[in-house]
Amino acid sequence: MSQKDETARNLVPPTAQDSARGWAATRLSALEDILDADGLTIISPLQDGVEHLVKMAIEARNDRKESLFVILDTPGGVVEIVERIVRVLREHYA
Predict the structure, then answer these.
(1) Structural domain span for residue 9
(2) Contacts by 6-15 with C-beta closer than 8 Å and gap 24+?
(3) Which pLDDT belongs to residue 77?
(4) What is the pTM of this model?
């Protein structure tokens, strides 16, 4: 990215979604410290592919703790996907 593009990008105000993500990341980090556990937030229908995103998010952690807490906000989904997510969580945190 050129210097001009970088400067222009910095002039664009953050979206509401960017602000919400920043706020949530700060709070999640605080909870991780208080609970001495890794945190995972899933805000999505539990449909095909979510289990892969969960696995990638967990495996991307360099300093994994012994415990995990999950904040889940979903309208529902496919039970087989939930089973796969649980399998991934147990594989890394059991």
Answers:
(1) 3-93
(2) none
(3) 96
(4) 0.76
